[in-house]
Amino acid sequence: MICDKVYQPGKSADPFFRHRSKQLLIPYVCFFLVFYAFWLVAGRKIGDGLDVNIPFYEPILEYLYGRPYHVCWPLWFVPCLFLMQCLFYALNKWVKNKSGLTLLLLVFPFVPYIIDLSGTPFMFNLVCSYIPFYGVAFLYRDYLLRFLEGRKRYILALGFFILYLFLVWTYIEVDDSYLKIAIKTLACFSVIVPLFVLLKALSSVFGRVKIVEYITTNAIVVLACHTYLIRIFQLLIVHFIGKEYWADSYWLKFGIVIAILFLMLIPIWGINRYLPFMLGKGRLFEKK
What we know:
Largest sheet: none
Helix content: over 70%
Number of helices: 16
Mean pLDDT: 85
Distance between the termini: 29 Å
């Protein structure tokens, strides 16, 4: 369903890449510039020893390489997702047969075990691992949507969940690396159906929760900012209460996570209201 919104096979290459760049790469660059400036001013003073000792240009090289670590590291998924969408776009243009494309997608998780892809740009090793789920979700989204409306969905969901538990047990017992990849892939696919049935059941009970929907539609803001808010809370608690209390109190950490989710409403609202260009929105990006 998500793929149906972000990927449209009827588009030519130029509008497709322009739209994906606006939606993903512009926020990726904008958040880096903001937090890189923060890192230069304060991060190198309050961070760990590694943050202090690295040269000032290293975070820039990491971001250009698509593998951020020192600055805004949760956004590693953005270049990874961008590359995944571009790769699937090319594959879907090249392979016209749906069954053939599905088989080709299922081969990708084996590639990092045949070729060493560790350290590749834009997390290409993870692209290979996750592109089957992205591609299959797009190719068979209509079947999944019809399934969610069917009367036997709960029975089938239970069956898929039992299959998932069996595959997890099998994965633990198996030693062969290639067999583990196949079992892991099948297990991930098998849990999708019960997960979607559960989410649909919850939505029918609770309806649309606007605050949750508002946060999830601005997930990139949450991912970019939440680690810095957690770090601020941690420094304040360690300073005023003590390091031991922070290390031992799991309820405190849980409470901070909940508080941060609600505090995220502030940067989400502020960025959408006053700095929409950071998300690839606003007059600057309107079609002319």
